[in-house]
Inverse folding.
């Protein structure tokens, strides 16, 4: 096999393994936990169950204990919010100065309003 074919095979296997792992822990979590978002309390049925996701509390997708202690069922919106808060909580970010604002969105508004009078 050429190097490209070997790399393609490794990537395909990794993707396949990840998808299988996700199916397994999601199915387990849906059996163990109620079909309710752990944050907003939204309830789910079979018709909208695809909108209920499994969140890893420690953010490690390989940490899948069979008792479900690292999982939390969250709706799509709460799951996105949780990951956004995690990204925003990068250590040391509070010590950095914010970037200077260079765009002035309403800079020409006064001139436009004067023209209409």
């Amino acid at each position: 096999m050429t190097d490209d074919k070997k790399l393609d095979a490794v990537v395909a296997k990794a993707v396949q393994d990840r998808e299988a792992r996700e199916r397994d822990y999601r199915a387990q979590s849906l059996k163990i936990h109620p079909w309710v978002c752990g944050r907003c309390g939204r309830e789910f049925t079979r018709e909208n169950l695809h909108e209920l996701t499994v969140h890893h509390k420690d953010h490690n997708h390989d940490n899948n204990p069979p008792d479900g202690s690292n999982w939390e069922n969250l709706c799509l919106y709460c799951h996105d919010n949780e990951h956004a808060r995690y990204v925003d909580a990068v250590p040391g970010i509070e010590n950095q100065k914010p970037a200077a604002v260079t765009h002035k969105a309403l800079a020409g508004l006064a001139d436009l309003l004067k023209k209409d009078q």
Summary: The CA atoms of residues 110 and 116 lie 10 Å apart.
